[in-house]
Amino acid sequence: MPRVSDEHLERRRQQILDAARVCFTRKGFHETSMQDVFAEAGLSAGAVYRYFRSKNEIIAALVGETTTSVRAALAEVVARDPLPLPAEVVTVVTEAVVRFSGADGPVRLAPQAWALALTNPEVGDSVRGLLLAMRGLWHIYVERMRDVGWLPADVDTDAVTKVILGILPGFILQHLLIGDTDPDTFARGIALLLPDYRHPAQQPEGTG
Q1: Does domain 65-196 have CATH number 1.10.357?
Q2: Range 176-184 contact pairs with CB under 8 angstroms and sequence separation of 24 or more
Q3: What pTM did the predictor assign?
Q4: pLDDT band at 1 (very low <50, low <70, confident <90, very high)
Q5: DSSP annotation string for 63-97
Q6: How many CA atoms are closer than 13 Å to the CA of 203, on its beta-carbon side?
C-alpha cells in the first residue's frame, strides 16, 4: 500500500478538529458525544480514534486553537513601534475576539475550556499553557510601557501583567453571555481609567 503523506494525515486530523469544534460550539462539551463528532466529520469511529483516543483528547487539542488568532493579534500589536496606547492594544485584541466568536467560532469554546480545566487535568494543562502564553505577551507590553516612561522604573511588572491579563477573559464573557459589550466600549473604558500616556516626542513643551 502507498504510504500516507504527512500532509494527508494533518488534513484528516484538522478535519476531525473542525468537526468537533462545530459540535462543541453548538451543544457544549458535555452534551456532545463522539458519535456526533463522527457524523459531523463524515468519518468512521476507527478513523477518528486513529488520531484521538477520547473526547477529552480532542478538547485538549482544540484548546490551543481557541484563541490562536487572538494571541497572534496581541503579539503583533505589542511589538508595534511606537508603542501603542493601552486603548489601542485593547481595541486590536477585542476586535480579534469578536471576529472569531461567531456561531462556530473557536473563541466560543474558551469559557467551556476554562470550566473543564478545573476538574480535568489533561484539559487543565492545555488551558494553563494558553494563559501563560497570553500573560507572557502582556508582560512584554508592560515592560515596554515601563521602558518608555509610562510606568515607574521600579514598577512591579508581574503584578501589572496579572491584572491586565484579566481584561481579555472579562471581555469574552461579557461579549458572549451579555452581548452588550464591544471593542469601542472597552477601549473607552480603558482610556478613562488610565492616564493619557504620551511618547517623549509627543510631550507638550514645558512638560515631561
Answers
A1: yes
A2: 176/101, 176/107, 176/108, 176/111, 177/111, 182/94, 182/98, 183/90, 183/91, 183/94, 183/95, 183/98, 184/91
A3: 0.86
A4: very low
A5: HHHHTHHHHHHHHHHHT-SSPPPHHHHHHHHHHHH
A6: 10
Confidence of residue 202 (pLDDT cuts 50, 70, 90): low
Note whether 60 and 16 are within 8 A (CB).
no
Q: Hey, where are the domains in the chain?
A: 6-53, 65-196
What would the pLDDT profile of 74-90 be if each residue is shown by its tens digit? 999 999 999 999 999 99
- What are the pLDDT digits (tens) for 31-72? 999 999 999 999 999 999 999 999 999 998 898 888 889 999
CB 41 within 8 A of CB 16: yes
Question: Does domain 6-53 correspond to CATH entry 1.10.287.990?
Answer: no
